Amino acid sequence: MERADALWHLFVKELMKFGVVGALAFVINAVLVWVLMHTAWFEDSHIKAKFVATVVAILFSWVANRLWTFREKRQENKRRELVQFLVANGIGLAIELGCLVFSYYVLGLQSATASFISGTIIGTILGTVFRYFAYRFWVFRQELDEDPDFAGSREEEFAFITGQIPVVQGRDETPRTDSDAPPRQV
């Protein structure tokens, strides 16, 4: 049961890190797409503005997830990992753009606000769910049991989980008992 609790805590820790990176990437994406949609270059093309903003957010996400969220789970082959990361984000981008295209062309909602909600809010939520599972199980795929936060033995792991510190004795020392302790002075 302790192992299941430890696995759950590691999952929650990883998910929270992913959430922080995702929140920051979302802010970058949202601010940039909103600014770009109100510039002369992109005011007639919300889809291009969304594409540029998402690419910038993906680059931020790559660095932050690689160096912080999944730093212990990186692959040795960096090129392969980068290609997998870009493929996962390409699919995530397609999900976001798909929401925007559906809203813009099928539903006819063509205001900047409607595009922002469909592409940046709804699309990002759906794309983020996909990205987490793609990162966790395909890009950064080291097994959770191999996480360095786990101790070397079940006893050390239990001590880590419960907060107990194991008593370490030197090689030449024998365990002390209360009768070996020096007398206390009052």
**What is the succession of H and E elements?**
HHHHH
Bin the strand percentage. under 5%
Question: What number of structural domains do the residues give?
Answer: 1
CA-based gyration radius: 25 Å
Fraction of residues in helices?
55-70%
Compute the number of helices: 5
Q: Give the averaged pLDDT, no decimals.
A: 78
Structural class: mainly alpha
Low-confidence stretches: 144-151
Task: Give the tally of β-strands.
Answer: 0
Distance between the first and last residues' Cα: 45 Å
Apparent shape: elongated
Largest sheet, strands/sense/barrel: none
Give your account of this protein's structure.
The structure is a single chain. The chain has helices at 2-37, 46-69, 78-106, 112-139, 154-162. It is an all-alpha fold. It has one domain. Helix 2 runs antiparallel to helix 3 (78-106). It is elongated.
